Amino acid sequence: MKSAIRSLIIATTLLVLPPLAMAQDEAPRIQLAILLDTSGSMEGLIDQARTQLWKIVNEFATAERAGRRPDLEVALYEYGKSALASEEGYIRMILPLTTDLDRLSEELFALTTNGGDEYCGWVIRDAVEELAWSDAPSDLKAIFIAGNEPFTQGGVDHRTSCRSAIARGIMVNTIHCGSYEDGVSGSWKEGALLADGEYLNIDHNRDLVHIDAPQDAEIAQLGEELNRTYIPFGSFGTESVTRQEAQDALAEAAAPAVASERAVFKASAHYKNAAWDLVDAVREGEIVADDLDEEELPAVMQGMTGGERQAYIEANAKKRAELQERIRALSEERKTFVAEKMRGEANEGDATFDRAVIEIIRQQASARQFVIE
Questions:
Q1: pTM
Q2: Where do the structural domains in the chain lie, given as residue ranges?
Q3: In CATH, what class is 24-207+352-367?
Q4: In this structure, what DSSP letter does residue 371 have?
Q5: Neighbour count for residue 310 (Cβ, 10 Å)
C-alpha cells in the first residue's frame, strides 16, 4: 500500500501539476495542447502525428530562456468521432498536460477514426477550461487544432472560444487539412487570427518521406542500451518500462528515422521519468533510495545495503549520461546528412503536420524569448 501511495503522489505531482502548486522559482514552461480531428477521413493526419511526434518535440531539445531549460507539457484531445458522446460534442480529452510523452505516443498509436461531426469551437473551449494552463504571461501556451470541416460547426461559437483562449494568453493555431482557400472560407484562418495564432494548411494524406541515415543503426543500438539504465520502482515501474519498450518498437516499425528521433528525445533533458525510474527520482530529489521497501525495488536491487543501492543508481546514471552524450553527437551528424538530402526537395505544397507545427513553434517560442538552436 505504501508503494502504491508514494508512486501515485509522485506521478500526479510530476505529470499533471497545477500552476498554483508549483514553486516560485519554477522553470519556464512550454505547454501545447494538440486537438486532432478523428473523423473518418483523418487517418492520414493521425499517422502523421504519431510518426512525427518525436521530431516535433525534439525542437525543444536545445530550448532555453535566460539560461534555463523549460519544462515541456503536452495535452491531447480528439474530436469529431461518432463513437464519442454526442452530448459532450463528440470530444474526448485523452491526456491532460503531461511530461510523460511515452504515454502520449501510446495514445496516438491507439487512436482510431470514424465519421462524425467536428465542433472546433467546442473542443477549443474544453481545452481552455479543462487544462491546467500556466498563469505566467511569459510561458508559451499554445493550442494546435487540425481538421478538415468548416471551423464554424457546432453549438459553441468558435469566435467566443478563440477570444477566451487569448484572454488567458493561449494562442490558437489552426491547421486545415485541405487547400488553403477552403480553410480560409471555412473560417480556419479567422480562428487563428482571433487568438494571435497562425493558420496553415497541410496535405494530411501525403505519404511521409523518412530519410534513412548512416547514423540510424548506431543510434538505435544506443537507444536500447539506454533503456537498460532505467531502474523501475514502485507500482508504476513495471507498467512504465513496458510502455517505454513498446514505444521504441512502434517507432522502429514506423521507420528507422522515426526510431532515431525517439532515441534523440530520450537523450534530451525533457525525457523525465522520476515517477517510476530511480535514477531520475533520486537526481530530482523525489526519492531517497534508503527509504524504499524491498518490494518496491526491482529484483536485482533487493537485498542490497544502502551503500550498494546508491552505488548501483550512480553507476546507471553515469552510463546513461555517456550514452545520451553519444546519441546527441550522432544526432548532429544525422541532421547534417538529412539536411543535405532534403536540400532543394521541399516546396510549399509539401506541408505536413510536423512541418506545420515546427514552423509555428519556432516563431511563437522566439516571441516569448525562448532560444532554440
A1: 0.87
A2: 24-207+352-367, 216-342
A3: alpha beta
A4: B
A5: 15
